[in-house]
Amino acid sequence: TNFGIHNIKDGEYTQTIYTMIKEQRYAEAIQVLNRIIISHPNSRAALSLLAYCHYATQDFASSAHFYDTLTQICPDDAQYKLHHAQALYQACMYEDALRVTSQIENPDLQLQVTKLRAAIKYGEEDLAGAKGLVDSCPSDDPDTDINLGCLLFKEGRYDDALQKFTQALQVIGFDAHLSYNAALCHFKLKEYTVAQKYIANIIERGIRDHPELSVGMATEGIEVRSVGNTLTLHDTALVEAFNLKAAIEYQLKNFEAAQEALTDMPPRSEEELDAVTLHNQALMNIEAKTTEGFEKLQFLLQQNPFPPETFGNLLLLYCKYEYFDLAADVLAENAHLTYKYLTPYLFDFLDALIMQQTSPEDAYNKFDELASKHTETLRKLTKQVQEARQSQDDEMVKKAVTDYEDVLERYVPVLMAQAKIYWDMENYQQVEKIFRKSVEFCNDNDTWKLNVAHVLFMQENKFKEATGFYEPIVKKHYDKILNVSAIVLANLCVSYIMTSQNEEAEELMRKIEKEEEQLAYEDPDKKVFHLCIVNLVIGTLYCAKGNYEFGISRIIRSLEPFHKKLGVDTWFYAKRCFLSLIENLAKQVIVAKDSFLEECVQFLEQCEAYGENVKTIVDQPIEDIQINWGQKTVAFEARHLKALLLRLQITKTQ
Amino acid sequence: KYEQLKLIMPEFETPLPALQPSVFPPTFRELSVPPLELYDLDEAFSSEAARIAQVANKCGDNDLAYFI
């Protein structure tokens, strides 16, 4: 409470204010001191304490302001100049900080000045400048080793950097930030288990020494107040450690664990978050909180500095969500960032992807060029692996294999983007040709195998071959069949049916049904659409072949029970079959029994009843056109289809 | 857009280059935090009357001339 703060009695100033500082109630101390400074504008005591309290809450810009005033009041005290420069450095105001350090002439402070100048140069990414200064520091000072380690790290020499850090750890013992540095090197060397050990140690210490930082409480669902950006938080390196933990889990594709690492972090309010945490929150929750994620990344791009990954990630996410125009705008508006933040590969890839919207042909050629560069490298690396194996150089084999995998990981997106251009044109023969050319590199790649299966399937005369690709995917997960995507299961059923293996299709469907029932028993609220989609695909197949009575009955079955199965996608495919039925009835290509049409009408009435709140188009996270949502519901469209069917029946009886 | 009913087209998988998580760069050594300076705040901030009283209390008879 603020009670009593307003009127500190004479004779109680020292006790009251220093107690607040001791108990880390900096905000209150600042409030009191702010009032005092009005009547004592040049009080050294007030200015010094304000500078200190702002520093302790990591409000470095304000702290710098007060140290600046102190240097004017006490021009002979060089310490204040050093603190002024230090606060400016912490506030990332590097130029000002350097300027102030150059005014410090006191010989006793020279080592500290040199260390600070090195840190400023490091912050500015002037690595050569930083190196020069660090080299002039005493070599037996562990600080020197640590700083050299940081510089080696920036050069990508992670092994050498790690050596410096472990050397320093042996001298000074546990230090949260130093342990973080070591963990970071192991992360870059992809030695995730060791990195995780260091992180666990940092977190354990943090929890033990500072239970007030509420580690893990937000994840447990306990409502917690912000712990603020205090020096204590900074000293524990917990924010750094939890972000690294999240990054490791993200690289290992353990996305839930990554999100959890972020919520385990000591809680702060959103405006208190640092740029790295904000970036990772946006990235790791993008699917659940898409709009928010885009807002955060766009906000970060306006900050200085921002995490270097922000630019590439924002562009890739725009493309993922098909906002190619936005991606093009951001790329054009930030031409100055491209060279610094995008690898040539990422730039070329994004450029081609965006170009595809206006000129598929140019984009195709660009992807082709990129693809041949990659295949060339892959061939070279294959040769290297073979040579290393022959000379039995294990170290060399390991390195060549890792390099090969890295290049392959960059090649697959290029290959698929290129193939997608023909896929969109429904030129499946060409897609198949592209895949044949890449078989030597990709035959173990899951995405490649899946797309090959799809492209064989869509040609409608290669169901046997398609089965050969779909089957292993399903067999691999036979114990947990609902982990296989529904469309794969559906297409395998269709492939079975089209090659007269109806029993296999039926067996597979029974298996899916059984697992869905089991799941419904364990978790009644969980929505599953696998059998529904299988029935939709098979129903569509029969309708497309003109067997509407059987096809539509499948479609109807697929959507039961309506309150669970009616959704944007399922309705989209059901509706297509009804439209086709109505079209062929109207053209009198087919005739239908009254009982069948009656069944259709009844089905549409059910859709009307359950589809009041089911939309027929998906909400877009970023949208500026107005949509009449009343007309974009399943109920509205079902009523429309019913009207069409009834009109056909009336015409027939007249 | 009009088109004849045909098989449901599966989604062609087009993976994007991997998104990159962010990490803090390795921590450079920092200077120690500026010290907390100790002041007698009662002397510095007390009201004028209180300060006069304080000084008066410290004064003996011999300081009278100085005090005035």
Polypeptide structure, described:
The complex is a heterodimer of chains A (654) and B (68). In chain A, α9 (142-154) packs antiparallel against α10, α18 (309-320) runs antiparallel to α19 and α24 runs antiparallel to α25. Chain A contains 34 helices and no strands. Chain A has helices at residues 13-22, 26-39, 44-56, 60-73, 78-90, 94-101, 110-123, 127-135, 142-154, 158-172, 176-188, 192-209, 231-236, 238-251, 255-264, 275-284, 290-301, 309-320, 324-333, 335-341, 344-355, 360-390, 394-424, 428-442, 446-458, 463-476, 486-498, 502-522, 530-544, 548-558, 562-565, 568-586, 594-610, 634-653. Chain A starts with 12 loop residues before the first helix and ends with a helix. Chain A is an all-alpha fold. Chain B is mainly alpha-helical and 68 residues long. Helix content of chain B is 29%, strand content 0%. Chain B has three helices and no strands. The longest helix of chain B is centred in the C-terminal third of the chain and has 11 residues, at 48-58. The radius of gyration of chain B is 39 Å and the shape is rod-shaped. Chain B starts with 40 loop residues before the first helix and ends with a helix. The model of chain B has no long low-confidence stretch (mean pLDDT 80). Chains A and B meet through α1, α3, α5, α7 and α9 of A and α1 of B.
* Rg over alpha carbons of chain B: 39 Å
Rg of chain A, Cα atoms, Å: 33 Å
The proportion of residues forming helix of chain B, as a percent range, comes to 25-40%
Looking at how many chains there are and whether they match, the oligomeric state comes to: heterodimer
- Count of helical regions of chain B: 3
Mean pLDDT of chain A: 92
Strand residue content of chain B: under 5%
- Taken from the alpha-carbon principal axes, the silhouette of chain B is rod-shaped
Main beta-sheet strand count, sense and barrel state of chain A: none
Unreliable parts of chain B: none
The class by helix and strand makeup of chain A works out as mainly alpha
State the share of residues found in helices of chain A, binned by percent: over 70%
Count the strands of chain B? 0
The whole-number mean of residue pLDDT values of chain B reads: 80
